[in-house]
Amino acid sequence: MSEQTYLLPAEKVRAMAEAIVRAMGAGAGRAGIVADHLVTANLYGHDSHGVGMLPKYVAGYRAGLLRPAQELRIVSDLGAALVCDGGMGLGQVMGREAMRRGIEAARRHGVAVISLRNAFHLGRIGTYAEQCAEAGLASMHYVNVNYIAPLVAPWGGRDARFGTNPFAAALPMPGEDPIVLDMATSRTALGKVRVARNRGERFMAGALIDARGEPSDDPEVMFSEPMGAILPFGEHKGHALAMICELFAGALTGGETYRPERRHPAAIQNNMLSVLLTPEAVGGEAYAEEARRFRAWVKASPPAAGADRVMMPGEPERRSAEARRREGLPIDARTLAELAGAAAEIGAEWPEGLPRG
Ligand code: NAD
User: Fold this and answer.
1) Where does the pLDDT of residue 236 fall: very low under 50, low under 70, confident under 90, or very high at 90 and above?
2) Residue 67 belongs to some domain of the structure
3) What is the pTM of this model?
4) 164 close to ligand 1 (CB < 6 Angstrom)
5) DSSP string covering 61-93, please?
6) Which of 4, 46, 78, 349 is most enclosed, with most CB atoms within 10 A?
């Protein structure tokens, strides 16, 4: 049965998110960073990484695993290579601070590599690519996931062995929006399966297998025990990229690759390896002109059946944000009820007029 979905003003949803993060003991600045991040994910159409994540954060906080007051710790600083430990602090705050330092380092040295290990959920990874692009830097970000139940089956396997290991990259375009790739290396993010389950919908074919390793379109396979698995995107190639994300983020940073013995129902840990490039330092003095020429050539391809135009990565998110700012954020009753429950558990004020599911 399909649940009711409300269309809610972004500002009201943001106020609710900020109140929940503040009630976990984070100051206004930190709570604002997390609330902006989550609401932007909703605006961009990534409800999987929007405010619907907050009940998980509250569970992590109540279990003593998420530490909202944690500061970023610098483990080593070689100038162009910086190793940071997030100490299971708010991922959005740790990620933003690590990138701020990385941007400074890349401005000084031309390029910078930032290892961020042991942060609580970093959320939508494109955020960090956009932060670098705003500063005029191109960047790449490799991420792995720990503590959660394994979600993704390796290509050729029948059960889940690792997380949805996202990869993001962005190219700044002076005077325009950046080109932003931001994707899970699985066929879908788990949150999208959660959204489908909460809305009572079937899930797209070819994305999930059940606990026996057989194809399924039932989102419940990811929320029952024994659990099924999500398949990698792009068959063996997605699997191969997921392996690189796991090893760059989990091993090269000095963090950890997926460890089944760390599994905990109330925690999500991310590690991230980021490479920040100043265009001039890598020979890109005229890159924007070259990028515009290529983009125009690609976009001139006649639209295929069912498509209205060719887009660059990052465009679907901006289109979604335009529409959702106008029409409101679609949030289903089950997600709202989970949020209202989490808010009540930690004594966060619920904004007046916001439905409780
Ligand atoms: P997606 O499949 O919706 O989009 C992937 C990329 O494809 C985006 O860059 C998008 O701009 C581009 N794209 C989509 N349609 C396009 C089109 N028609 N033309 C051109 N480009 C197009 O994203 P996803 O894989 O579902 O990931 C969702 C989010 O989940 C991301 O923000 C990711 O960072 C996040 N995530 C986070 C974690 C974590 O542990 N923190 C784990 C997994 C995913």
Assistant:
1) very high
2) no
3) 0.96
4) yes
5) HHTT--BTTPPPEEEEE-SSEEEEE-TTB-HHH
6) 46
